[in-house]
Amino acid sequence: MKKKKWALFEHTADLGLYIYGRDRRELYEAAAGALMAQITAPEKIRPARERIVELSADSPEALLRDWMAEILYLCNALGWLTAEAGIESLTGNTLKAVLRGEALDSQRHEIGAEIKAVTWHRLKIEKLEPEGILRATVVLDV
């Protein structure tokens, strides 16, 4: 079993996440897992199909927000649940990733939090010393 790379923090009426990674690639992959864990039990999502996602933004924080917003859009608008997210390339503020997952199946996937949006509120990526790991702060509108 993989070690959890995120933690919840209290935030009035919303859902706060701290997400951790050794580098931005690992951080963004962990962000996908953290988001899905709020929506349904990730272990019940099968990596049956693939989707390619390509995004560009003005900053690492904006790219993280857009990345999570794209995964949320796929879930809310198309009923797509992400089991695995693999960043294939990350250059500057542009990423290309493969999402593996499947369509929502109400028989197997119990929906937890109804997440409306990935917000800009408190959004940041910082390097924690002395560990040297990255921590993102993300607030989800529920």
UniProtKB/TrEMBL annotation:
Keywords: Calcium, Metal-binding, tRNA processing. GO terms for molecular function: metal ion binding. The keyword Iron does not apply. The keyword Transmembrane does not apply. GO terms for biological process: tRNA processing. Pfam families: Archease. It comes from the Bacteria. Residues 6-142 form the Archease domain. Belongs to the archease family. This is Archease domain-containing protein. It comes from Candidatus Glassbacteria bacterium RIFCSPLOWO2_12_FULL_58_11.
